[in-house]
Amino acid sequence: MTRTAAPVSLPVALTIAGSDSGGGAGIQADLKTMEAHGVFGTSAITSVTAQNTRAVEGFATLPVAEIEAQCEAVLSDFDVRAVKTGMLAEAPVVRSVAEQVAEVDVPVVVDPVMVAASGDRLLDSAGEEAYEDLFEHATLVTPNTDEVAVLTGIEPTDDERAEAAGEALRELGADAALVKGGHVPGETVRDVLVTGDGATVFEHPRIDTEATHGSGCTLASAVAARLALGDDLETAVAGATDFMERAVRYNLDVGEGPGAVHHLAELRNRAAQTDTAEAVEAVVRSFVERDVSALVPEVGMNVVGATPSAESVGETAAVEGRITRTLSGVNPNRGVRFGASSHVARFLLSAREFDPSLRFAVNCRFDADVEDALSTLRGEVAEFDRDAEPEDVKAEEGSTMGWGAKRAFQSADGTPVAIIDRGEVGKEAIVKLLADDAETLQRRTFAVLSALEAEPGDGS
Asked: Biological process GO terms, please (predicted)?
């Protein structure tokens, strides 16, 4: 028997850009990013490049007529809700694309690809001037600092100069400008959105990686995808910069160069939620069956699992209400859900800043006997002393876990398998066990429990 089809309706976006044979930038990055946002991506290729994670080895620009034919084919058939432009290569192409987008009444995001990461110019002066025609139809332009300097003569080295550059770009015809700060030195990246209503700064911690090839394409196509979904501009930019932060932090280790931006990191992260919650549930069941009451602290125990690229407490699964001792052993108060833990989840997220492969944690009671039992584990046991905690950290709600994790990791030679918090007046002493996977967390907990009960542990 034939099955009934179940068509899915998605908003459509069009990217007009060059092809990257290395898959990290250009059309390939745009289409992956749009798909990750639940948007159907269509394309018009302007140039074909021969490149990989190490270098661009050559490129050829397609004839203008061929580019126009691609645009016409897409726009005549699809209900395109947003357009994104990337590498346009030559002045005739820029002018042609300006004519194409002038005919559509949808948001247009222009990534003015003019300067390579190496600092080399990718357009001659005629091509740079031609961009002014395209800016007249742009909802948003997204230049990096080098491109801003080319277009406006202003080097956006701080927020004030970035805002001035954004206003200059609006004077060139764009409705709004996102002046990206990725090339400006500093511990944070500050992207400044300038609209007719003023300036908004989007700040993110800088990621210590060189795997940023294609980040400009990805950010612009993320904005376009969100506009196609119906977001207003500020919401679209906020979501796109968050998307970019995760895509860069959890980059893909491919090729012989620095690697590639992980365009599907957020999508894969959401897809892993069910598996993560089920892994936590399995550990909790094993704790009930084994009866880990000897390790349950007065405040209760919790098992926390983070999705592969978790960045917030809401992306960690834990027992709602914790695991507590009963007359017959231990039991979870309620079920497992995301965002259920605060204390242990924040500690795990802080530990992931030093080792992102860590995904599971459990808090256990701590005393001299437990300390002796921890010696059976293969791996380093670290600790932090609350007496050394600065007053400003104590005063900030929820900041102790981040400070404690940092102190512990800085004192360890590698990733600790357990971190001791000796507590203070009014704060119970606790040890947290850490692991890359749920099975290892379970084994380490049972090893400590066995040693505590004077039974041979497996030392895992």
From this structure: thiamine biosynthetic process
Provide the token pair at 45. Answer: 């290729």
Map residue 74 onto helix, strand or coil: helix
Residue range(s) in the chain whose domain bears CATH number 3.40.225.10: 272-452
Give the C-alpha distances (Å, rounded to integers) separating 115 from 124, 155, 176. Answer: 10, 14, 21
d(C-alpha 399, C-alpha 258), whole Å? 33
Tens of pLDDT, residue by residue over 36-88, are 999 999 999 999 989 888 888 888 999 999 999 999 999 999 999 999 999 99
| Token duo for residue 166 | 């954004």
Q: Find the helix packing angle between 26-36 and 215-228, rounded to 10°.
A: 40
Pair 324, 403: CB distance under 8 Å: no
- Angle made by CA atoms 442, 351, 209, in degrees to the nearest 5: 125
303-306 vs 198-205, strand pairing mode:
unpaired
CA dist., res. 62 & res. 93, Å (int): 9
Token pair recorded at residue 121: 């110019």
Radius of gyration of the chain (CA): 26
CATH number of 12-266: 3.40.1190.20
The residue length of the chain stands at: 460
Measured between its terminal Cα atoms, the distance across the chain in Å is: 53
Q: Tokens 């007046």 belong to which residue?
A: 425
